Structure formats: C-alpha cells, structure tokens
Amino acid sequence: MNRRDSLCTMATCVASPTLLLNMMAPKPRCVPKVDLKRYMGDWFEIGRYPNPWQKKYVAVKNNYRLRKDGKIDFRSVGRKKTFDGTFKQQEATAKVVSGSKGARWKVCFVWPLTAHYWVIELGDNYEYSVVGQPDHKRLWILSREKTMDSDLQKGICERLVGHGYKPERIEWTKHSEDPSVYLKPKQKKRGLLG
C-alpha cells in the first residue's frame, strides 16, 4: 500500500468511526447446516436491528416456502405503530448460497439488488433462529412463537456479542394475541357509486 492509499484509508476511518468498528468486529459465524424443509413456515420476529423498511413496525411475522427449483419464497407482514395500524407486506425470493449447507441466503426484494441472510444461531428443534448480515448492519431474532423465554433471549444477546453485534441496538417487537392482526385486511367491495 502506498502513502496515498494509506492516507485515504486513514481519512475514511476517521470520517466514519462506524465503518472502522464494523471492520474490527468479528465476522458472524453461520450455523454448520440448516435443514431447509424444517426451517420453512411461520416465524415471529422477536427483535431486530432498526432498519428503514420496518420503522415502528409491530406484529411482524415472516413466512418461508421452499420452491421446487430450490429457491425460497419469503413473505413478511407487520403493522405500522399499533396492532390496528396500516398493514404492510413485503415479498422476496431467496437463493441458498452454494456450499453454505443452507445457512447463507441471498435475498432479492427488488431485482437486481440482493441482501445477505446468514443464519448465525438456530435452536435444536428449530424453535428459534437468529439471522444477521456479514456487515453487522441487520439482525433479526425469530421464534416459532410470539414470545421467547427470557433466559433464552438473554443467552442469545450474550452470544451476539461474540458475533460482533450490539444487543443494546435491538428493538423488541410487540405481538398481539388476535390472529387477525397478522392477516391482510379484506378489501371492501365498492358499489357503483363508490
């Protein structure tokens, strides 16, 4: 590296302490293997790192469906601010990264952009999952149930530090006992006069 490159690198690090911290943070480690058939189905979001497309969301529920071609259909639903808030839905397609044994996916919400989806922790019975990204910008804690045992949640947060994540950044997701909160509201039929 020449002097100019060194100065540019140093200037970038000074200008962006977050970038430097992310570079120094340990890279997340994926689980050795994910049985995709067992992973499919519904997952409730227990917590997440803040992100622009889920700002102030509650009642977030994800569904994964394995397609015949090996890709995964991903659907996420949630409500804006309150349980009776605006219903939001996102859909994407994921492709398992070759050689990752199901633990790393590339998710495409809008072609051609993809996001990394790394399963960094997974319950023995697939009762919970922790998903992150190699740059530590995104994190989700998922569960098959709407709630998670407090000891398990605490243990996950402690282990996240070893993956380079900051548990204090996690926003905890509120859930409703009303199953209709997770369903898209039916459109009201309009008459001829609107």
Brief summary of the model shown:
By secondary structure, the protein is of the alpha+beta class.
Describe it:
The chain is of the alpha+beta class and 194 residues long. The chain has one domain (36-176): Calycin beta-barrel core domain (Lipocalin, Beta Barrel). The protein has four helices and nine strands; from the N terminus they run H-H-H-E-E-E-E-E-E-E-E-H-E. It has helices spanning 3-15, 17-24, 36-39, 150-162, and strands spanning 41-48, 57-66, 72-80, 87-96, 104-110, 113-122, 128-132, 139-143, 171-172. The protein has an eight-stranded antiparallel beta barrel. It is globular, with a radius of gyration of 19 Å.
Provide the descriptors you would attach to this structure in a database record.
4 helices; 194 residues; 9 strands; alpha+beta; Lipocalin
Strand content: 25-35%
Q: What's the number of structural domains?
A: 1
By DSSP, the count of extended strands is: 9
Q: Give the CATH superfamily.
A: Calycin beta-barrel core domain
Helix/strand-derived category reads alpha+beta
State the helicity in percent bands.
Answer: 10-25%
Question: Taking strands numbered 1, 2, ... along the chain, how are they ordered across the largest sheet?
Answer: 1-2-3-4-5-6-7-8
Mean pLDDT: 87
Series of secondary-structure elements, N-terminal to C-terminal = HHHEEEEEEEEHE
Catalogue the unreliable spans: 4-22
